[in-house]
Amino acid sequence: MNDEKTNRLFKNYKWRIAGLIGGNAVSNIPRGAFTGILFLIIMNISIPVIEKRDFDYDLLYRYFFMYAGAFLIYIVLTIISQRNNFIQSYTIGSDVRLRLGEKLRRLSLGFFKNNDPGDVTSRMLHDVNKAEEILSHNLPDIVSAVIVPVLLGFFLCFINLRLSVILFTAVAVSLFFFVAGRIIIRVLGKKHLEAVNRASSRILEYTRTIKPLKSFSMTGKSFSELDRAMIKLRKMSFISEVWTGIPVQIAMFILDAGYLAMLYYAVKYALAGDIAVYELFTFTILGFYFFEPIKNAGVILVLLRHAANSTDRIREIFDTKEPEYLSTAVRPDNHEIKFEDVSFRYKNENVLDGINFSASEKSMTALVGMSGSGKTTITSLISRFWDIQGGRIKIGDTDIRNINPDLLLKDISMVFQDVYLFNDTIANNIKIGRKDATDEEVEKAARLACCHDFISSLPEGYDTVVSEGGKTLSGGERQRISIARAVLKDAPVVLLDEATASLDPENENEIQKAITNLVKNKTLIVIVHKFNSIQNADQILVLDRGKITQSGRHDELICKDGLYKKLWKAQQQAGSWKMRSA
Amino acid sequence: MNVIFSLIKEKKKEFVFCAVLASLGAVLAIVPFILIYYIIQVFMTDASSVEPGLIIKMLLFALSAVILRYFFVVSSFIFSHIAAFDLLYIIRSRLTEHLGHLPVGFWSGNSSGKIRKIIQEDVERIENFVAHHVPDVISGTVLPVVTITVLFFIDWRLATATLIPLPLGLLMIKLMYSGVATGGKKRSEMWNTYHKAIENMHTTIVEFVQGMPVVKVFNLTVDSFNRLKESVEKYRDFTVMLSKSQTPFYSMFTAITLGGGLFIIPLGIYLLKTGQTDAASFSLFLILGTGCFREFVKVMTIAGHCELIFAAGNRIGEILDEKILPEPESAEIPQKFDIEIRDLSFSYKNGGPNVLENINLKMEQGSFTAVVGMSGAGKTTLVQLIARMWDTEQGGIFIGGKNIKEIGSENLNKYVGIVFQDVQMLTDTVRANICMNKSDATDEEVQRAAETACCHEFIMSLPDGYDTVIGEGGDVHLSGGEKQRISIARVILKNPPVILLDEASCYADADNEVKIQNAFSNVMRDRTVIVIAHRLSTIIHADNIVVVDKGRIVQQGRHDELVSSGGIYSGMWKAHTDAKNWKLEDVKEEIIA
């Protein structure tokens, strides 16, 4: 049952939720008392009329005071329980969000490749909101909707079993339709959610690729993929709303019809003298109050199923396996990196196959090869962004799968090809390298990364806020900031994707200086695009389609026929663009 | 609030129709109460004189009323949903259409996460409004109004007592929203803070997910990535604070509206005692009068939701109010494709510092112009202005003598192809990514474009060739160089007379670089080409090299002229040749030492 799974999501909050349910149950008892007292008053003014005796006014006044007392208790209890509902649900919601964030961070990057970022964020936002709503609204409503009919049901059975059976039959039949509605929601809700997510991804894509789309006049409806996703969303929204709404309406109709059927028999029996008039009145009045909350409960049960789709999606993240490690393994003190027969597959595609090499401590290893040959994958595997399917990767003789990933990453600095900056000040973006760094240390790192000058020239210097993704800075500036982060982190292993190609010459010089400062005394693995910077590497690994085809130093490789020589030659030829055939 | 109503105007007739159906359904909801009253009255007066046939008739009448009621409710439900989802689609289309016509400057102040939220979640709220809230408000008001009216006819004194909880309840609501509950802060202020807290949380979560590789490698745990924790906790603290201060009033409201008995019971007993009412009427008030505001509670809950909805509507309205690039009524069609930039100055913000200052530049049809300069000099802006990603206030850009504003975006896009520095792929097949808007291109044409862009080979090595789905949600992840070549193939297929290239050779490895250069040499023939170049060796054959510094053109001419004339360019050229000889020698020395 999916509800059980939902409960599992909330199991950390077992007691708080139990308290929440209990609070709402208790606060609803006076509400039941209202109904009971009203009923008693009606009985005590109608029966005397029939029996032609005087009203007992003292009794009536006593009932009134009981009513007023119940009312006061009700107000106090409701205030307490409703406050608690909201406070608990928002507190639990934010806790779930933070736990989700922490969980996401621990997942391998494969998760983010398989799940659209728009989808992942909507789980943290939208789906958690739904979960909050379950706790703050649906659960309390269910509790209050169930308690009154249960109490009334028992009472009515005592008065007259035959009539009660009619009521219960109506409830059973309507339950069938409520359940049908829930099943439909489960099926259609998933499809609807898929349509929502697809539209969400397309909208995000549209906003992110707006520039090329504009230049190809593919905005608005001309971007047919987005239009189609939105049309599909319209259709699925309609279908899922209406097809879940109709069984619910049928179920509610059955409850109303059941009440009338019960009245029919009650009147018939009363006229035949089979039941007393007070029994008829009891069923006429309390029967009505018996059905009203059940109608509410039915609607909420259906809503809850809707919400369960959201909690399912949150749970899916919590249930995704994290990379495992041995808690006993410690941080390696030697930083030699070894690949032993490593193979890695991604979606049935062999990305790396039988990779063997070792990079001794404080040496420089260069990776070269065509794009798609697996260079970036090697650096990602060292930081354990993915787990390998075969072989072993070791740092200082320890299999990296044994080390706590957090500890492993403490020893590694990475400079990525595409630099991501957070929407925060430049100083804080650099401080990501080491959270407790002082302003002086940040500035020192920035100087070493050759970005102090341009940062100081900005109107607000280090306090300048970088926009989302760092778009306001140039590519070279972004990269230097990311080098400053790595300098500040000062990890013994540096993995560097040398994406200097996008930079203008002035920047390129600066970046090369920055890199030189970064890699001093480090075990360096660098992905190289421009061969002039690697002639002094201790070893060069030449990759082709996931395999190492050649390895050695530049002077050795250049003398042998092979891919390296070919690439080297190509690089030398890469010269000027030829405009005209001339 | 106005925004919402102007947005739903489009479906006004449908919604009015649904509202009528919903009110008819609501009126019929009173029938069971009347029946209860009737039965009590009949059996109370004299059970022996009761006519069985009449009661059966009453029951049948009630049954048909119930059936009719569900008929109204269900049809209102179906029709309002057809109209509602249609409306959402229309609003979303309008938004995406509008966004497409905005200058790209819009995006520097608006994150994609924020805009997605508006298009998706804020628009979705309108469905709740028109398909649920409006019918609920109608049934929640119609039923009490009809009930009270009926009750007034029976006994005006008891009916007045029934009404008393209403003003008391509303007073609670007023207190809840007034400064009393929120420490003197106004309601609108509170909602603003609330929305800012949500938006802030959205933005940081989007960032957290998008920046995941950075998050992982720098061990940015939720505790240390303060902004995430802060924004989530700020949202929590705000909502908790709001709940604490507002729920007492809200709870009192719900309780009081349900507590009609407090006034009906004592008055009823008094009237009964003094013989001014009978047991049957009193019973009716006890049954009908104590519960008649139950539905009305929903209305007030909805009023709370409406705050959210109107705020959402305002955010939608803000986007739709953003000024789009104006399009000419009749487009001018250039016959030639030389480009002239006249006295152009440009700043991102009105009154902000000029990013480009007094640019004058001529490019002959079929010529090759290179733009060089430091990062931040304004090269990208200059080139994007030619593609009319922004409009200029001062000066103009002319293609074949026609101002690009008069040519209009639609036409301009036909004449100008641009390769951006950050290459974006759509989640779609390789073929669709190359075709873009040219869906009628044949397979041969696509393949030829891919071959010219030197990407046919790697496309064929993908699992499904041209049908492989690439992009963020795709099966295959492409390298930067591969994406770049596909984006070149796009432009080749489009075959425009003017081509703009921005930092077009980034992320290319050596092999790629040769391929890309070949690709470009193929495309450039007989076209007006403007290139933002980073490796000066690639542009030494350019017809004109334009050196941009701090938003101004400081030098222009051919490579040889510029190298020999001194100035910025010759300095850059020297830096470039130095860089080519850069080695990790310093490092080596350190390591050896």
Give the number of DSSP strands of chain B.
Answer: 12
Class based on secondary structure composition and strand pairing of chain B: alpha/beta
Largest β sheet strand count, sense and barrel closure of chain B: 6 strands, mixed
- Nearest-integer average pLDDT of chain A: 84
SS-based class of chain A: alpha/beta
Low-confidence stretches of chain A: 1-6, 578-582
Number of strands of chain A: 10
How much strand of chain A?
5-15%
Number of helices of chain B: 25
Largest sheet of chain A at a glance?
6 strands, mixed
- Spatial extent as radius of gyration of chain A: 35 Å
What oligomerization state is this entry in?
heterodimer
Describe this structure in words.
The complex is a heterodimer of chains A (582) and B (593). Chain A has helices at residues 2-9, 14-50, 57-106, 109-114, 117-159, 161-208, 210-215, 224-271, 277-319, 375-382, 405-410, 426-431, 439-448, 452-457, 475-489, 505-519, 554-559, 563-573, and strands at residues 337-346, 349-359, 364-369, 390-395, 398-399, 412-415, 493-497, 523-527, 539-544, 547-552. Chain A has 582 residues and is α/β, with parallel strands linked by helices. In chain A, strands 6-7-8-3-9-10 form a 6-stranded mixed sheet, with helices on both faces. In chain A, helix 1 packs across helix 9 (277-319). Chain B has helices at residues 2-8, 12-28, 31-45, 52-101, 106-109, 112-154, 156-163, 165-177, 187-210, 212-217, 226-258, 261-273, 279-289, 294-321, 379-386, 404-407, 409-415, 430-435, 443-452, 456-460, 480-494, 510-524, 559-564, 568-580, 585-592; strands at residues 339-346, 356-363, 368-372, 394-399, 402-403, 416-419, 428-429, 469-470, 498-502, 528-532, 544-549, 552-557. Chain B starts with a helix and ends with a helix. Chain B has 25 helices and 12 strands. In chain B, helix 4 packs antiparallel against helix 6, helix 19 crosses helix 21 (480-494) and helix 21 runs parallel beside helix 22. Chain B is α/β, with parallel strands linked by helices. The model of chain B is unreliable at 582-593 (pLDDT under 50). In chain B, the strands form 3 sheets. Chain B has a 6-stranded mixed sheet, sandwiched between helices. Chain B has a 4-stranded antiparallel sheet with strand order 2-1-4-5. Chain B has a two-stranded antiparallel ribbon with strand order 7-8. Classes of the chains: A alpha/beta (582), B alpha/beta (593). Chains A and B meet through helix 2, helix 3, helix 4, helix 5 and helix 6 of A and helix 3, helix 4, helix 6, helix 9 and helix 10 of B.
